Structure formats: structure tokens, C-alpha cells
């Protein structure tokens, strides 16, 4: 590595680590299907059915084994809901 390259990679590393500090992951409230059904005024059975792999366009969710959770107000969940809204 040439001296010029070393200084460039060092300054690049500093820039990368400061960008990582600024880009901290957004956290969302994690809720279960009963809570999502309550908030959307829908039957919990419908919510559960829409999370299944055979659903045409499943609700975005996080799976932990047999447990299904949703990230309330996450961009993916809001986008999914917005596609189904009618005005």
C-alpha cells in the first residue's frame, strides 16, 4: 500500500464509522396479531390468515418460530396497509 493510499483508507474509515453512528436502526413497537387486529378493527383470524405463506400478499411480519409479531408504524407495514385503503 502506498502512503497516499493509507491516508485515503484511514479517512474513508473515519467517514464510514461516523456514518454508522448517524444511521442507527429505527425501533418500532412490536405487537402480536391480537393487538394488530384490535388496532385495525379486524378479526384476529383474518390477520393470522394474511401472515401465512400461501397468502397472495402477506402482511409484513417478523417470525420467531411459531410466533408472529408486527412492527407497528414501520414503513413496510404502513405501505402494506396503504395499498389496501380505499378513499
Summarize the structure.
The protein is α+β, with helices and mostly antiparallel strands. The chain has helices at residues 3-22, 33-40, 44-50, 75-84; strands spanning 29-32, 62-64, 67-72.
If you had to describe this structure to a student in words, what would you say it looks like?
This protein is of the alpha+beta class. It has a domain at 29-84. It is built from four helices and three strands. It has a three-stranded antiparallel beta sheet with strand order 1-3-2. The N and C termini lie far apart (61 Å). 7% of the residues are buried.
Shape: globular
Helix count, DSSP H or I runs of 4 or more residues: 4
Q: Widest sheet: strand order?
A: 1-3-2
Please count the beta strands (DSSP E, at least 2 residues each): 3
State Rg.
21 Å
Mean pLDDT: 83
Pairing-aware structural class of the strands and helices?
alpha+beta
End-to-end CA span = 61 Å
Helix content: 40-55%
Strand content: 5-15%
Order of helices and strands: HEHHEEH
List low-pLDDT spans. none
The quaternary state of the protein chains shown equals single chain
Biggest sheet layout: 3 strands, antiparallel
